[in-house]
């Protein structure tokens, strides 16, 4: 089937799921129909004003996709971001906490984190030290940290999250 929107012209395939039976021999799993609800787009009133066109959180079937937060002030968008990795990390984590809370979740619900640092070599260790204050050490989310050349508003750290509301 040709899909003009698909630059790779991939052909859809049908997947069959096999699971072990009680006898140990694989058997085809019964098909399950997934019912997905429409996404909910949250603009959180006490979170920082978006610096671009986006929602703070998009919710789909209990999953929360939290847009990357910078160290912007939630009350005064005109204030400059604070100086240094410690001050910016604390402000970013506070902004993420506000976004999560506005969607009925908290850091304990986070399953995946992406971190963007403009000065990776300089700030990675300091960021890690602060990061552990926000998550239980026996329940650390999956994580990726990337060095980038620039972030909006002169930020040196940005963090986005995926959470699953319990």
Please give a quick description of this structure:
With 166 residues, this protein is α+β, with helices and mostly antiparallel strands.
Structure in words:
The chain has 166 residues and is α+β, with helices and mostly antiparallel strands. It has a single domain, classed as 60s Ribosomal Protein L30, Chain: A. It has helices at 85-102, 120-131, and strands spanning 18-20, 26-28, 40-42, 57-60, 63-69, 110-117, 142-147, 157-164. A hairpin with a 5-residue loop joins strand 1 (18-20) and strand 2. Helix 1 (85-102) crosses helix 2 (120-131). The radius of gyration is 20 Å and the shape is globular.
How is the topology of this model organized?
Blueprint: E1 18-20, E2 26-28, E3 40-42, E4 57-60, E5 63-69, H1 85-102, E6 110-117, H2 120-131, E7 142-147, E8 157-164
Helix pairs in contact: 1-2
List key phrases describing it.
single chain, 166 residues, alpha+beta, 60s Ribosomal Protein L30, Chain: A, six-stranded mixed sheet, two-stranded antiparallel ribbon, globular, disordered N terminus
């Amino acid at each position: 089937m040709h899909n003009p929107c698909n630059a790779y012209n991939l052909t859809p395939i049908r997947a069959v799921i096999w699971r072990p039976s009680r006898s140990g021999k694989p058997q085809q799993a019964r098909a399950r129909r997934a019912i997905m609800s429409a996404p909910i787009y949250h603009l959180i009133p006490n979170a920082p004003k978006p610096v671009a066109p986006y929602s703070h959180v998009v919710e789909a079937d209990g999953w929360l996709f939290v847009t990357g937060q910078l160290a912007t002030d939630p009350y005064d968008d005109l204030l400059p971001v604070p100086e240094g990795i410690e001050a910016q990390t604390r402000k970013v984590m506070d902004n993420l906490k506000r976004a999560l809370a506005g969607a009925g979740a908290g850091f304990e619900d986070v399953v995946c984190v992406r971190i963007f640092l403009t000065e990776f070599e300089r700030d990675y260790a300091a960021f890690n030290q602060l990061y552990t204050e926000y998550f239980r050490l026996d329940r650390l989310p999956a994580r990726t940290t990337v060095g980038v050349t620039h972030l909006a508003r002169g930020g040196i750290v940005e963090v986005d999250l995926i959470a699953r509301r319990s």
